[in-house]
Each structure stands twice: as C-alpha cells, then as structure tokens.
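Hi D.,

Good news: the full-assembly prediction came through. Inputs first.
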Amino acid sequence: LERIVKVSDAFKAKPGERVRLRGWIYRTRSSGGVIFIILRDSTGVIQAAIKKQNVPQPDFENASRALIESSVTLEGIVREDKRAPGGREIEVKSFQVIQFSHPFPIGKDQSTEFLLDVRHLWLRSQKMTNVMKARSKIVRYLREFFDENGFWEVTPPIITKNECEGGATLFEFNYFGQRAFLSQSAQLYNEAFITALEKIFVLAPSFRAEKSRTLKHLTEYWHLEEEAAFYDNEDNMRLQEQLVSFACNKLAKNDSELLKLLNRDSKTLLEVKPPFPRLSYDQALEKLREEGVKIEWGEDFGAEHEKLLTKGLKKPLFVHTWPKKTKPFYMEVHPQKSEYVLNADLLAPDGHGEIIGGSQRIWEYDKLLQRLKEEGLNVKDYEWYLDLRKYGSVPHSGFGLGIERLVKWMLNLEHVRDAIPFPRVINRAYP
Ligand code: NSS
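Then the structure:
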C-alpha cells in the first residue's frame, strides 16, 4: 500500500518506492503522450510525469484538463531523473483532481497593487510561503529567548482608554457611548504585570493611524514588548542586543536552506553579536551635520537620516539619550541632564529603520503626575497607571520591537508589508 508523504519526503525516499502525494498544480505542460505536472505542497515542489499508457484513461483526461492551482492527489513511483528539478520525478500511476481550479488570475509580471488586491491568492507564491516560514521561525526564536531567560508571556487588552505614543496616531472608536482606542502599545499594562511577575513579554497587535505611505509603516502591526522590574536603561539595551542576536544566530544556524531560497546570506546574520554600537542623540546629530544634513536639535530622525547613520553597519545601532521633548510622557528624565530622557532607539543596518524603541520609566508618583499634566493628558484616565507608583513602585524599564520591521531587516525585504500576510496601510484594509 502506498504511503501519503510530503514533497520533501519524496526527495528523501528510496528510488523505486511507491508514494502518494497531495497538493496543488504549480506548473503544467504536455508533450506528446506525457503531461508534466509540477506539484506543490507546503514543503516544496516536485515534478510528476503522467504517461497515457501508465494511468487509467479518465485520470489522463483529468490531468490534461486541470489548470494550475487545481488541488490534486497522485500516486506513483519515485524515480531519479537528472532532467527534473531537484533530480527527482514521480512516475504517476493514478491521478485524481480534488477541485478543478478556475483560471488563476495571477500570471507573470503583475503590478504590486494587483498582487496586493489578490493577496489571499498571492500567499501561496514561493516568495510569500518562504517569508511566512521564516517569520514563524523568527517569532519562535524570540519566544524561546524570553522563555530561557525567565520571562513570563502575558496578555494585555487591545481596547483601552489610554494613549501611549501620542494622539496623532490613535484609532478612536465609540465603545458603547464611551471614547476608547485600539492599543498603540501594551506598555502601560506591562508596567502593571511586573509587580506580580517581575519579567514579562507580550506579543500582540498594535495599531497606529499612520497617515503617510512609507516603506516601514503599517496601521496594524505585531508588537513584541518587554518589561522588567529593577532594570535600568543599560540593562534594557543589553537585553535588546542579546534578544536580537539570539534570533539572528538561530535563524542563520537552523534555517540556512530557507535563507538561501530568500536570497539572504546567513553569514551576515551570524555576525550579529553583542555589543551593538551606540551613539547618543547629540553624537548622532553631530554625525548627520558632518554629512551635510540640516537638522535642528530636538528634531526626530527621518528615513534618510536613519539611512546615513546605519550605512554599511553589520549590526544594529543604538541611538540613546534623546531630547525629552521628542519622546512620550512616561520616560525617565536623565538625572544630570534634565532636557534628556533615559531611552534608546535601535536602528537596523542599511536604512532598514528603527526596529526597537525602549526606555527606563518614571517610577515616582509626583514626577509622573507632573509629566502627564505637562503633556495635557486627562489625569482621570491614568489613575490606574498612577496607582502603580503608589503601591511598591520600583525602577523599571522596557521596550517594544516591531516584528515586521525586524523581519524586513533580517530577510532584507524591500517593504514592511512584505513581512506580513495581510498588510494594513492607509489605503488598504482588503482583502
Ligand atoms: O512607538 S514605539 O517606538 N515605542 C512604543 O510603542 C513603546 N511603548 C514600546 C515599549 O516600550 N513597550 O514602537 C516600538 C516599535 C518601533 O520601534 C517599531 O519597530 C514598531 O514598534 N512600530 C511600527 N511597526 C510598523 N508600523 C508602524 N506604524 C509602527 N510603529 C511602531
């Protein structure tokens, strides 16, 4: 009796073995009395040769009628064949169609916008399949790192009454007559968890009403956020470089075949190791000015600035100690320089942009209250957050990493939307 196997198993099977495969038609062509089908499943593609004299007549007719992307099952003998892709071919003995596909709308050289319109179908392309596999691995390694280092995974709410990262990018909605928002960040809740669990992380969607179209902004993205009691900004940066290096090294070591399919060289990822280079905001500003950039103190960096700062780097770059006025209310003020905060942004090499934002938090009640007022936030909505500074408050720090930004850099993708199956941007919430 035949075994049901995956395409990858068929490549490992002994020649002469009889196997049964299930999947989709990736390519099809016929020549004389033979139909060559490239069969695709989640593990890869393999050639199958359907000869008229080898199969029952209806099987041959179905094979000749079935268009690409039809779902099929077939049974046959594994043969070595130098002419076939990968040096293997299935000599088919029986062939059934599960569903005859309608003519597939995706052909060669289609526009980016069209491929986004049919994203639900484009997901099965080799490119998207490989990106999704790599993303799955990367997320697994990130979780593994936290698990090995004593962090608990927690689950914050998505519906909230608090802004975390400024009003300009809030998605507001009517919550049974009350004003509420989609979460921009789990951070404020993360700060509540640490009094129970000390070291925690969250993987959840964050929402930002980003009104501009760029290579790195989504309106819905996956946010990996960490928070730890008793950590200062130094501890925070060290943890970030360990986390990022761990994920890069694991992917390079365990998944080099996958990386090859994505045209990403494993060696670069193996070289990502602590410590990462660091510049203070003021040093970065000086460097930009040396390059001829006109920029005021206190201005945020744009994509071009980030590109200049990270050009040719092998590892990500920390830019730390930012002007207080450019950053949110919750960041701890620098003890010696009151116009600065204890924070760091981590910029990926070669202009891939900011992948992490993190800081030490204000942990004292009076200071936090003052900053909330300075920023004009409604103190009533933050009473619970202020409570955290009343009952056993401790110094603490945390950060947030954008999964799609990290994946974009690690796989060297062009656009952040290539790193997420169904991207949401200003002009798109379909499919
Ligand atoms: O705004 S952040 O810089 N920081 C926070 O939200 C903190 N509250 C996180 C924390 O300390 N717990 O966002 C963090 C990261 C940022 O570095 C990006 O990698 C990513 O989140 N990010 C985004 N990715 C994709 N699209 C958009 N629009 C986006 N905004 C931030």
